[in-house]
Amino acid sequence: MLASHADRERAVDVLRAGFAEGRLEKDEFDRRVSRVYAARTVGELALVVADLPQGPAPHPGAVAAVPQVFLATPRPAQNGRAVGSAVCGLLCLLTAGLTGVPAVVLGHTARAEIRRTGEDGAGLALTGLVLGWLSVGGWALFWLLLIAVDVLD
C-alpha cells in the first residue's frame, strides 16, 4: 500500500520520540527521517521504525510487521436496506414495476439510517430510489393515459 503524507508524519513522530528518549543518535535520527520521506510504501515506513517501542511488535518468524498506526481503517458496514432498495429497483424491470414501491420505501429508510449511523451504501439507496420512482411514475402515467383515452372515447 502506498504511504500517505500522514503516514510519513506518524513515522517521523515515532522517530522523534525515540530520539527524545535517547534511543537514537542525531545522525541516525537524520538518516531515518530522510528514509521516511523517501519511502513510497507503508512497509518501507514500518521497517524504519520497527526497532523502536512505538513501532511494530515483532512477530516470531517475521522480519517486520506493519504497525497498527499504518493499517487502513476498516470500512463501515453496508446498509442492508440500501442493498434491498437497489435490488428492488433493478427488479422493477423484470416484475413490470411491482417492486417499485418497496424500492422507494427501502431507499428512503436506508438514506435516513445511513445519515444516522454512518454506514456505507448511499449510492445503492439512491439507485433504488431513482429506479423505484421511475417505475411508480411510469405506471402512474400509464394509468392516467389509459383513463384519459377511455374518457375521450
Features:
153 residues; transmembrane helix; mainly alpha; DUF4190; transmembrane
Word description of this protein:
The protein is mainly α and 153 residues long. The protein has a domain of 50 residues. The protein is 64% helix and 0% strand. The protein has six helices and no strands. Helix 4 packs parallel to helix 6. It is rod-shaped, with a radius of gyration of 28 Å. It starts with a helix and ends with a helix. It holds the Pfam family DUF1707. Keywords: Membrane, Transmembrane, Transmembrane helix.
Quick structural summary:
The protein has helices spanning 5-20, 26-38, 42-49, 80-91, 100-117, 122-152.
Largest sheet: none
Number of helices in the DSSP assignment: 6
Report the sheet-strand fraction: under 5%
Structural class by SSE content: mainly alpha
Protein name: DUF1707 and DUF4190 domain-containing protein
Keywords: Membrane, Transmembrane, Transmembrane helix
Transmembrane segments: 82-105, 125-149
Pfam family, one: DUF4190
Explain the layout of strands and helices.
Blueprint: H1 5-20, H2 26-38, H3 42-49, H4 80-91, H5 100-117, H6 122-152
Helix pairs in contact: 1-2, 1-3, 4-5, 4-6, 5-6
